[in-house]
Design a protein that fits this description.
By secondary structure, the protein is of the alpha+beta class. Helix content is about 25%, strand content about 30%. Among the domains are: about 310-425 and about 580-610, Periplasmic binding protein-like II (D-Maltodextrin-Binding Protein, domain 2); about 425-580 and about 675-719, D-Maltodextrin-Binding Protein, domain 2 (3-Layer(aba) Sandwich). It has 18 helices and 38 strands. Strands 27, 28, 31, 32, 33 and 38 form a 6-stranded mixed sheet that branches. α9 (about 470-480) packs antiparallel against α10 (about 495-510) and α10 crosses α18 (about 700-719). The protein is globular and about 85 Å long. It starts with a helix and ends with a helix.
């Protein structure tokens, strides 16, 4: 019966494509053309007819005590969500398979745990796992100690072995497609299966029916410019899929597609380990998003729902932070936020001057978005105009007490806390003890270090980036208090001997060597260490975007011969903290949702949430708690989740004695000051004119005079 239905469906699809050469069919035999794909989908029409009726959370149980989770696979069949998780014993590292089933109709759960074995393959390991359309488990197994001895085991949900094939069958099928790049499998509710192949070169996804018994494939269709990561078919044979950021309805027979639901506009979290589509008995589509064993189910409906209040969040800072805020807005709604957050974060809009002007005009008129993500420059402007409000009462004192000291200072303008930075990075400088043995230095002392040696092999370097002339100028001019520029008094001294000397220094020591084929500097980690050990590097610029992980790696790279010295400044340690994406959250002074926005900010700064920032956290307690001793590995690692029972860990660089750099990192973080503010207009002026000097088209003194006149004119204008 199943096979007859399959052949009938394929026959109908072939008839639908007859005579349509543009769809890639050879009229002689009805098979896909080699040059094109069969049944190429038509244009996507904007429908957007669905909306969220309800949101419900679900999660699978964590591994039992004594076991840790490994590779996890999710499948969606009928009304059920299946999680197949490979687990290992913490003491003996023995593998087993945990199968958990969640039924979306009654919210019921089932769990099956077993150790798959086949005669003659004792001690074998699970390489990957999958679920067939008829709800059989398909396991790719590997014999212990054998390099390429793979074989297939099929079991039922209870672990009873149904079939063993050795060696593992050639080709894509049967199953275990997680080992294949850009290929996904979907089990449909009627027991059939579909393979999805994405061609990165053509930017096209091709779908084929799969005959599970024979292993053959038949064409279903192809979609241009969409990577299909979820697929469902209803009782009428209509396909629904997630492509990009949209849920699409695809009538293959009519060759028509319609966009039903846009994820970002509706606050659905964009990132997920797995996504699935299910149709319940009421005819509603369930959009399922899963991550680390936890999930959210969005019940979608075509019924007209009453308009809801929304908190508007708009970005005037391009694409920076878009995915982060979408994810947080979705989490906020899922966790009981009474008023959802509507995001206006289209990057193309944010770069358009008319969009920015429109938003600014709205704010001046007492309207506009409730929350804005802006540059430091715009934050200062908006504060001076009185258009954004004080955030002091939105951040509880107990939260303030555990924040990195420099975080609140970053968002403070004229003594008022107006900006929130939920993620940070750090910038500093390392050097060799052979070059400089003190804890800090100023620019004059650095110049003395450089003058003491005539032929530096590599005076300045930075991982992944060439330290050219302007990079040096940027680092030395803009970081730290400088007598050259006084923004408070609106004065500058760019025509001074000090600045002329700085220009000459940057030109002399800027790295002009060619990049490698990847557009990066050519120094390897080993070469960097050698240069540091031999005193051939005066300074390494260090960017820390990964918290303790990045700091530990930098300390390892410096070795015992090097240390963190900071940027050359007159006062302070020369270590800086800044917004991760260089953006700031500010709140419209006229918003009606201060209380709800305060709850949203509390979520951003929450202990559990900050653990998930990938090392960019702003809380001192999270930094301290992230170090974990893994008894299995017998070493310290970095926790990436506050859920210690379901540990997500990351290896970190350790000291030679096996201890961590945690205490050093905590002291470093506490020493970091907010990144100094330099208006973009001034940076642009200095860059434009300095480049003419670096290129040999102007003298240093002439360049300095022009910069002085242009910058002073700008300062007079903003007085």
């Amino acid at each position: 019966m199943k096979r007859t239905f399959l052949l009938l469906a394929v026959f109908c699809l072939l008839l639908a494509g007859c005579g349509r050469e543009e769809n890639g069919y050879d009229e002689a035999d009805g098979r896909p053309d080699t040059e094109q794909e069969a049944l190429l989908a038509g244009e996507l029409s904007p429908g957007r007819t669905l909306s969220i009726k309800a949101v419900q959370a679900m999660h699978f149980a964590d591994p039992e005590e004594g076991y840790v989770g490994g590779s996890t696979y999710y499948r969606f069949v009928g009304s059920r969500i299946y999680m197949l998780r490979v687990e290992f014993g913490e003491k003996d590292n023995a593998p087993r398979l945990c199968v958990q089933v969640y039924d979306t109709e009654d919210n019921g759960t089932e769990q099956y745990v077993f150790t798959p074995q086949a005669q003659g393959h004792e001690g074998c390991r699970i390489f990957s796992a999958d679920l067939t359309a008829d709800q059989e488990i398909s396991l790719k197994m590997k014999d212990a100690g054998e390099e390429n001895n793979f074989f297939l085991i099929k079991t039922d949900l209870q672990g009873n072995v149904l079939e063993v094939e050795e060696p593992f069958p050639e080709g894509l099928y049967p199953w275990n497609l997680d080992t294949w790049e850009d290929v996904k499998s979907f089990a449909l509710s009627d027991g059939r299966s579909v393979l999805s192949r994405f061609d990165n070169g053509e930017q096209r996804t091709t779908l084929t029916w799969v005959d599970e018994e024979e292993g053959g494939e038949s064409p279903l269709g192809a979609v241009q410019d969409d990577f299909i990561n979820s697929l469902m078919m209803d009782e009428e044979g209509i396909l629904y899929y997630l492509g990009g950021n949209s849920l699409v309805r695809w009538d293959v027979e009519k060759n028509s597609r319609e966009e039903l639901f846009e994820l970002y506009e509706n606050g659905v979290e964009p990132g997920a380990e797995a996504s699935g589509l299910i149709k319940n008995t009421q005819g509603e589509i369930l959009l399922c998003r899963l991550r680390q064993g936890k999930g959210t189910i969005y019940v979608l409906t075509d019924q007209e729902l009453p308009d809801r209040e929304r908190i508007r969040l708009s970005s005037l800072w391009g694409a920076a932070g878009i995915d982060y805020f979408r994810r947080q807005a979705a989490t906020f709604t899922q966790n009981g936020g009474e008023i959802p957050i509507s995001l206006e974060l289209e990057s193309r809009q944010a770069y358009e001057e008319d969009y920015r002007n429109r938003i600014m005009a709205e704010l001046v008129a007492g309207k506009g978005p409730d929350i804005l993500f802006v540059t430091q420059e715009d934050m200062i402007l908006l504060q001076e105009k009185g258009l954004i409000c004080d955030l002091s009462d939105m951040i509880p004192q107990e939260t303030r007490d555990v924040l990195i000291p420099g975080v609140l200072e970053l968002g403070t303008v004229n003594g008022q806390l107006v900006g929130l930075v939920p993620e940070v990075h750090f910038e500093t400088v390392g050097t060799s003890f052979q070059v400089w043995g003190e804890d800090g230095w100023n620019l004059e002392e650095l110049v003395g270090v450089l003058a003491a040696k005539e032929d530096w092999e590599c005076p300045f370097h930075q991982v992944g980036i060439r330290s050219d002339e302007y990079t040096l100028l940027y680092r030395f001019l803009y970081l730290g208090e400088s007598p050259i520029l006084d923004l408070e008094q609106k004065t500058c001294q760019f025509d001074s001997e000090e600045f002329i000397h700085l220009l000459e220094l940057c030109k002399k020591y800027g790295d002009t060597r060619p990049f490698n084929k990847n557009g990066e500097d050519q120094l390897t980690a080993g070469e960097r260490l050698r240069l540091m050990q031999e005193g051939e590097t005066a300074a390494e610029f260090i960017h820390l975007y990964g918290g303790l992980d990045a700091y530990s790696l930098a300390r390892e790279r410096l070795g015992e011969c090097g240390h963190i010295v900071g940027f050359p400044v007159e006062n302070g340690g020369g270590n800086y903290v800044d917004s991760y994406s260089y953006g700031y959250l500010v709140v419209n002074a006229r918003t009606e949702y201060r209380e709800e926005i305060g709850k949203f900010f509390s979520l951003l700064l929450d202990y559990d949430n900050q653990f998930k920032t990938g090392g960019a956290c702003v809380r001192m307690d999270v930094i301290r708690d992230c170090v974990y001793y893994n008894e299995w590995q017998e070493q310290y690692v970095m926790l990436c989740s506050s859920d210690t029972e379901n540990r997500e860990i990351r290896e970190i660089s350790l000291k030679p004695d096996g201890s961590t750099y945690l205490e050093e990192y905590l002291a470093f973080v506490e020493s970091c000051e907010p990144m100094p503010y330099i208006p973009q207009q001034i940076r642009q002026i200095v860059s434009e004119e300095a480049m003419l000097f670096f290129d040999g088209r102007k003298e240093a003194s002439e360049t300095a005079d022009i910069i002085q006149r242009r910058v002073q004119l700008y300062l007079e204008e903003i007085k």
